[in-house]
Specification:
The chain has one helix and eight strands, in the order βαβββββββ. It is mainly beta.
Amino acid sequence: MAFYEADSITGAVGGLLPGEAGYIEAALANARGKKLLLKADQLPGFGGSTIYDSLPIQADKNYGMLLLVNGSESNVFSSYSAANPGGSQQFLSFGSTDRGITVGIEDLLTSNDSDKDYNDLVVILASASPTVIGTI
C-alpha cells in the first residue's frame, strides 16, 4: 500500500498523467521518496486494523493510492483508474464520518476474476490518523 502526491485536478505525477507510460513507476518513486510506502508486513492481517499516526500525509496535498498486490512492484493498481490495465476501477470511495473518507480496494482486476467486493483492503482517512483494515 502506498500514498503518492498527485496533481489535484489531473492526477499527474512528475509530469505524467494516469495511463501514460511510466506513471505507476513515477507514483511508486514519489511514495518511496515521501516515506509513504507501506510494506506488506506493516499492514494489518485479516480482520485487523492499524492506525498510522506518523505517516507524513499533509492535509493541503492531494494523494493517490497504490495497491501492490502481494507486495509486488510489478502488479500495482492505482486509485486513478486510467493508470490501471484496461482502466479498471480498483478503488471505490465511500462516505465516512468525521469529515474523512473511506476507500475500499479490490485486489483482483475488476474485469476478470474479481469478486468486486472492494473490501480486500479498506483505508479510512480521517483527521491525522489514517486507518487500514485488512480483510484478505
